[in-house]
Amino acid sequence: MTYREALDYINGVRWLGSKPGLERITELLRRLGDPQKRLKFVHIAGTNGKGSCAAMCASVLRAAGYRTGLYTSPYLWRFNERMQIDGEMIPDETLAEIVAQIRPHCEAMDDHPTEFEMMTAAAFLWYAQERCEIVVLEVGLGGRLDATNVIETPEVSVIMNIGLDHMEYLGDTLAAIAGEKAGIIQPGCPCVLYEQSEEVTAVVRRVCAEKGAALRVADFSAIKPEFDSLEGQSFCYRGEPYAISLLGMHQLKNAAVVIEAVNTLREGGWKISPDALEHGLYATVWPARFELLQSEPPFVLDGGHNVQCAASVRDNLLHYFPKHRRILLMGVLADKDVGGMLETLAPAADAFVCVMPDSPRALAAEDLAARLAPFGKPTTVCGGIDEGVREALAQAGAGDMVCAVGSLYMAGQVRACLGMYREFGVRNEE
């Protein structure tokens, strides 16, 4: 099987989409010898921040000397980004070999696994074959019925910020969604929680009590920012100094959660020195999260795709670029809270450039422009993301900046337009 054939099989139309339940992934992994049972995990759920948290956790564990797997989604440019070991993506030929191994088992099943279930099984098999000492595992959707929840005893479960997203699958209240996310909490396994509303916290406390899981909640009042610029930020948490290269107050909160997770791992016997924690946090790179792609004119990329993310982007724009004219290059998915996102972002925007993300769920650029009309700001419609990047940059004069925001499904193409993927060449050219 070639790399291209492996991707075509995983992305087969017949099994795209979400089918909640653990029956298929359980059977597939059993057929493969249950590779997940030979691994140890940090399991991370949440609406926002789980990718940043996963990246920071993996960086810290690598700095501590552990062979560390990282499993995230979606990818920005190449499928292989979703599975990494020690910061390196799975090689093309290895992915093809792994998919060739799992394909006969998928075909033998009466109920064929979904794309995400196949990918999860492939990742577990690779991590086990490569003898990873620990895997940082990001939930795909929800938690309780997500394919990643087939694991039994994580070293620590982490629940990040929870908001109203994917309500068609998870419920229409914060409490209902929190209940689904808290489904990753396993009996006797410690849990770390991002500090948030009492509605969410009460649900997580109840589940932890029911399962005998010790709960540690990050204390955001213990964060003391010290220095902040477009090059990074330094802060103290519980009196200890740290620095990160990621931008925005929300990343300080994410880092605080990671510090609590590391302390939990230490209590479980993992050897993570203060130097490893400090270095791992600062070394973390996580693209498309208020990422400064260039300085002149400033061009920022953020894959934020819900109201909570939009609020962080708005606050960051006003904080880092208070005197700039701000041009927002926007593309969104039609099934998101588009109105809420636009209401949130509009106060930080002086002009809009509308594009359509690379997704069948995307809102047409013309429709997005129509939704923006009531805000009375200059709005341009472009035929594609490449054209949108060129147009936004053309509009940016001295003292202006550009922020691309609205969907991770356009983030990879935006980065490519600015030369961020020269090392990979053409996307999926294989």
Walk me through this protein's architecture.
The chain is an alpha/beta fold and 430 residues long. The protein folds into 2 domains: 3-283, 3-Layer(aba) Sandwich (UDP-N-acetylmuramoyl-L-alanine:D-glutamate ligase), CATH 3.40.1190; 291-417, Mur ligase, C-terminal domain (Protein-Tyrosine Phosphatase, Chain A), CATH 3.90.190. It has helices spanning 3-10, 23-31, 50-63, 92-108, 115-129, 167-170, 174-181, 198-211, 249-267, 274-283, 307-320, 338-345, 365-372, 385-395, 411-417, and strands at 41-45, 68-71, 83-85, 88-89, 134-138, 156-159, 191-193, 215-217, 223-229, 232-237, 240-244, 291-295, 298-302, 325-330, 351-354, 379-381, 400-405. Helix 8 links the parallel strand 7 (191-193) and strand 8. Helix 1 packs across helix 4 (92-108), helix 4 (92-108) crosses helix 5 and helix 11 (307-320) packs parallel to helix 12.
Keywords for this entry:
UDP-N-acetylmuramoyl-L-alanine:D-glutamate ligase; single chain; 15 helices; globular; 8-stranded mixed beta sheet; 430 residues; Protein-Tyrosine Phosphatase, Chain A; 6-stranded mixed beta sheet; alpha/beta
